[in-house]
Amino acid sequence: MENFGQYLSFDLVFSRLKFVSVPQIFMHMAEAAAPVLEIGADVVYQALMARERAMPSGVGGGLALSDIKIPGSAKPVVIVATLKHDVDFNALDSQPVRVMGLVISPERDGPYHLRRLSRVSRLLKDNALHEKLLGADDEAAVRSLLMDSGGGWLMAA
Description:
By secondary structure, the chain is an alpha/beta fold. Helix content is 43%, strand content 24%.
């Protein structure tokens, strides 16, 4: 059996972020990820916003997924957040977003970046998990749901 943890860990988890716009959310995530990545928050933020302009991260069903590769970053970072308010991420189905996933990888990570993104995508697209995440009261509850193999979510990813 493949070692799931080798390719996906949840480095930063946020519950019920109170921000109401994409730039606010990305700034918060950039500031949180920068120390882990060992690069400036402004570099992360600019990369996120450039990616968002090129391809909006709203994938539908109340979910947004974004990914970037950053030259010089120390290691990959996977972020999952639930949002307190509906946020418009320009999803194809026009539904507002309440769950956000973000994968940031070193530029050299190639296929590992795609594997992380694919697994985060499959995990967060699970409708049952999505609903439970929206009901999670804090970061510990969100992290527990993400790691709960009893729910079958990790096996699906």
